[in-house]
């Protein structure tokens, strides 16, 4: 039985994150960054099919994305491009994917993700992708008690 392999991520995602952190957050950079990060952490649903022994690849990617400033870049992007549903959906999907990893829940919640998710879902009530990814991210993040309290406050 063959198993799916990780998607080929753009190796320049770290440079794109740096560009956002340095203020170069134009819409094209934002979209490239969010897509590169999604590719890196494997938003591809086939990753669920990975056998337990290969799931450490996912955990490593989550940790690397978390420590690289990518979460901050995603939230900065969400804050800058508030009314762009395409950018918001990509960033919300990224937060959904990252929030699968329990070990970084507190970090995700403390960087403003809950506030950004709430705003994205409130502004884009008719966008099914944002609503679906946002609900999934909230469900994942609510496993952490501090995040659960924040979700009650903002949601």
Number of helices in the DSSP assignment = 9
Number of strands: 0
- Give the radius of gyration: 15 Å
Determine the fraction of residues in helical runs and give it as a percent range: 55-70%
Tell me the β content.
under 5%
Brief characterization of the structure:
The chain is mainly alpha-helical and 155 residues long. It contains nine helices and no strands. It has helices at residues 13-21, 27-41, 56-67, 70-80, 85-98, 105-110, 113-123, 128-141, 145-154.
Using brief descriptors, characterize the structure shown.
mainly alpha, globular, disordered N terminus
Tell me about this structure.
This protein is mainly α and 155 residues long. It is 66% helix and 0% strand. It has helices spanning 13-21, 27-41, 56-67, 70-80, 85-98, 105-110, 113-123, 128-141, 145-154. Helix 1 packs across helix 4 (70-80). It is globular, with a radius of gyration of 15 Å.
């Amino acid at each position: 039985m063959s198993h799916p392999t990780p998607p080929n991520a753009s190796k320049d995602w770290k440079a794109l994150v740096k560009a956002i952190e340095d203020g170069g957050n134009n819409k094209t950079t934002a979209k490239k960054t969010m897509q590169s990060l999604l590719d890196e952490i494997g938003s591809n649903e086939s990753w669920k099919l990975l056998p337990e022994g290969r799931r450490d690849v996912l955990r490593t990617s989550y940790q690397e994305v978390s420590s690289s400033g990518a979460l901050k870049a995603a939230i900065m992007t969400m804050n800058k491009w508030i009314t762009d549903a395409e950018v918001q959906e990509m960033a919300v999907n990224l937060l959904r994917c990252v929030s699968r990893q329990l070990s970084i829940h507190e970090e995700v919640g403390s960087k403003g993700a809950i506030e950004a998710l709430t705003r994205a879902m409130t502004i884009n009530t008719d966008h099914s992708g944002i609503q679906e990814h946002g609900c999934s991210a909230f469900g994942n993040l609510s496993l952490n008690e501090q995040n659960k309290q924040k979700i009650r406050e903002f949601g």
